[in-house]
């Protein structure tokens, strides 16, 4: 009998996308922190931390105008990328290999068969260009309510900063566990930044098969032809197809 058990999900995303989509927060290891945590810049002397602050503008000086908000754009729900026939056929073959006689295929719909859009016509919203005043002062920025002498910063890992030690230790503890790892999914990552880039190989050493989902096959490292899989495409399209036999139709 299958047991559904996900030990943990390390992520380099800092936009809290997974929790807002309903992912159990206890499984998520945010290696690069998240934008919705605020922390005093004086971490040692003050240490103030505020989590899950979703206010659109923290101070009046950082509030974009209504006209600028209109430039953010929106995603058309009827204009999302769809899987190509080649991709659907490949995923169906993998399902059949994994599930054997228990796999039941389904006929792709017309929308499923529509070709994927090229990158320049992606359904993502355009990047906002929100100019900020060049004469901002420290007083215009979010102030720490605890020490009242420093400003708040986003709780993300900036270039040159170390990853949070506690999160890394929690993430890597699973590799010290005596139990095996059955499957490792690497989704939407270049697999080049350590330590996360090494997690797939660490999982392989514990018996895991690795499935890579990415827009480029070049980002898949140390793939074993007889053990691992590489699915090239948009994760928003590929993952629902891969997981359909397990979780059913995506909402």
UniProtKB/TrEMBL annotation:
- Which superkingdom, per the lineage? Eukaryota
Q: Where is the Deacetylase sirtuin-type domain?
A: 1-249
Q: May I have one GO cellular component term?
A: nucleus
Q: Does the keyword Translocase apply?
A: no
> Keyword Cell division on this protein?
no
* Location of the region described as Disordered in the Swiss-Prot/TrEMBL record: 1-26, 58-79, 118-137
UniProt feature, compositional bias: Low complexity: 122-134
Which GO MF terms does the UniProt record name?
Answer: histone deacetylase activity, NAD-dependent; metal ion binding; NAD+ binding
Q: Which residues bind Zn(2+)?
A: 40, 46, 144, 147
Which keywords does the record carry?
Answer: Metal-binding, NAD, Transferase, Zinc
Active site, renumbered: 32 (proton acceptor)
Q: What family does the Swiss-Prot or TrEMBL record give for this protein?
A: Belongs to the sirtuin family. Class I subfamily.
> What is the official name of this protein in its record?
NAD-dependent protein deacylase
Organism of provenance:
Colletotrichum shisoi
């Amino acid at each position: 009998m299958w047991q559904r058990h996900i030990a943990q999900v390390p992520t380099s995303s800092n936009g809290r996308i997974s929790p807002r989509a309903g992912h159990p927060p206890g499984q998520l290891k945010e290696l690069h922190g998240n934008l919705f945590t605020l922390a005093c810049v004086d971490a040692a002397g003050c240490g103030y931390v505020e989590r899950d602050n979703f206010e659109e503008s923290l101070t009046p000086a950082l509030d974009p105008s209504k006209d600028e908000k209109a430039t953010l754009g929106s995603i058309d729900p009827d204009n999302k990328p769809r899987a190509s026939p080649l991709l659907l056929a490949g995923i169906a073959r993998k399902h059949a290999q994994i599930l054997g006689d228990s796999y039941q295929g389904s006929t792709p719909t017309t929308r499923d068969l529509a070709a994927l859009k090229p990158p320049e016509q992606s359904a993502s919203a355009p990047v906002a260009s929100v100019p900020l005043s060049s004469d901002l002062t420290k007083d215009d920025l979010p102030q720490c309510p605890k020490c009242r002498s420093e400003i708040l910063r986003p709780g993300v890992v900036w270039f040159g900063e170390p990853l949070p030690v506690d999160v890394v230790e929690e993430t890597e503890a699973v590799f010290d566990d005596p139990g095996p790892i059955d499957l490792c999914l690497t989704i939407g990552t270049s697999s080049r930044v350590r330590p996360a880039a090494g997690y797939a190989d660490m999982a392989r050493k514990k018996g895991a098969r690795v499935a890579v989902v990415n827009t480029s096959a070049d980002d898949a490292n140390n793939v074993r032809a007889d053990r691992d899989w590489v699915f090239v495409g948009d994760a928003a399209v590929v993952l629902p197809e891969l997981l359909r036999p397990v979780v059913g139709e995506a909402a």
